Amino acid sequence: MEPELEIMALPSEETLEFYNKVDKWIIKEHRDSDNKIVYIFSKDVPGEIVELFLKIRDKIDLPLSEEFHVES
Fold first, then answer.
1. Is residue 6 included in any domain, yes or no?
2. pTM (2 decimals)?
3. In b/e form, how buried is each residue of 12-46, taking b as 16+ CB within 10 angstroms?
4. What is the DSSP code string of 6-52?
5. pLDDT per residue over 25-55, tens digit each?
6. Whole domain around residue 36: which residue ranges?
7. Confidence grade of residue 8 (pLDDT, cut at 50, 70, 90)
8. Structural domain count, the chain
9. Are residues 35 and 63 in contact, defined by beta-carbon separation less than 8 angstroms?
């Protein structure tokens, strides 16, 4: 009998876009009271990166909070 192969699901397009474009601007993260991830972006994050994050946030395969911050 052959060993059973595990099939891994590919991440969503939005998750890939997050890791390729947005993730490098995140300097810290913590969990909120609902155990969702809150990101803190670098103070020099371009506006289009924040806009992209807001656009794809609900489709990313992570438990993300509605809250996020830009370092001051």
1. no
2. 0.83
3. eebeebbeeebeebbeeeeeeeeeebebbbeeebe
4. PPPPPPPHHHHHIIIIIGGGEEEEEE-TTS-EEEEE-TT--HHHHHH
5. 999 999 999 999 999 999 999 999 999 999 9
6. 11-55
7. confident
8. 1
9. yes
